[in-house]
Amino acid sequence: MIELRDITKTFSSRQENLLALNAVDLSIDTGEAFGVIGESGAGKSTLLRMVNMLERPDSGTVKVDQTDLTTLSKKELRQEQKQIGMVFQQFNLLNNLTVADNVKLPLTLHDYADPLTLDDVLAFVGLSDKKHSYPQELSGGQKQRVGIARALITRPKLLLCDEPTSALDQNTTEEVVAVLKKAHQEFKMTIVVVTHELPVVKSLCNRAALMEAGEIRQIVKINRSSSEKTIKPYLDRAREVLADD
């Protein structure tokens, strides 16, 4: 479904030229949950942004379902981007809009053939009771679930997640990962997750690219336990860590 071939990207400033991606090749299968991991500055977020052309490569090709996005006109590219949802690290919610209006925002910008209903998508992410709340009234985990609902309401075939849990604590991270895993299973979409958090990739993904200095060093197949990990409340986790022998 996703094919990146010989992707190179350099960012230039007055002080220096930074080679962010160096001749990167990557293939991701349709319906796969794929991780891109590496330390800060490895190039993983730049790589992710190539997939929906938020960043354009200096050279190379980006194909989604056999369509080379680098060759499209602006109008054609917008049509392709409608099929790609994105979840951001800092949520990217509009504080003057309610949860309902934030989630419905993509539907006000473009026409979609078969979007989810607002009530269905809020129920899916567990926020039915927050429909009329504002972002400042929500916890970090709730804000991220609003961001996921906004990405899902259009029924995208591809969901890109850029450090979706890095602003969250451990327990909230597990809750958000559980929502993403459920979305992958129920909607049969392809998910690409960029993160430096190894447990997130271990729990969610089938394969992962290990990045360093703008290059993919290795593609690894992830061995996941067949048993699902129970998400425990924070205080229960604290008691286990602090009180147990």
Structural summary, described in words:
With 245 residues, this protein is of the alpha/beta class. The chain has a domain at 2-83 and 157-243: P-loop containing nucleotide triphosphate hydrolases (Rossmann fold), CATH 3.40.50.300. Helices cover 33% and strands 26% of the residues. It is built from eight helices and ten strands. The protein has helices spanning 44-51, 74-81, 99-109, 118-124, 140-152, 170-187, 198-204, 234-243, and strands at residues 2-12, 17-28, 33-37, 59-64, 67-68, 84-87, 158-162, 190-195, 207-212, 215-221. Strands 6-7-8-3-9-10 form a six-stranded mixed beta sheet, sandwiched between helices. The chain has a four-stranded antiparallel beta sheet with strand order 2-1-4-5. Helix 5 packs parallel to helix 6 (170-187). The chain is globular and about 50 Å long. The model has no long low-confidence stretch (mean pLDDT 92).
- Straight-line N-to-C gap: 50 Å
CATH topology of the domain at 2-83 and 157-243: Rossmann fold
Largest sheet: 6 strands, mixed
Radius of gyration: 19 Å
Strand order of the largest sheet: 6-7-8-3-9-10
How much strand?
A: 25-35%
Which superfamily, in CATH terms, is the homologous superfamily of the domain at 2-83 and 157-243? P-loop containing nucleotide triphosphate hydrolases
Please work out how many helical segments DSSP would assign.
8
Show unreliable segments. Answer: none
Number of strands: 10
Provide the residue-averaged pLDDT. 92
Structural class: alpha/beta
What's the CATH C level of the domain at 2-83 and 157-243? Alpha Beta
Helix content: 25-40%
Taken in chain order, the helices and strands follow as: EEEHEEHEHHHEHEHEEH
- Architecture per CATH nomenclature, i.e. the level-2 architecture of the domain at 2-83 and 157-243: 3-Layer(aba) Sandwich
The dominant shape is globular
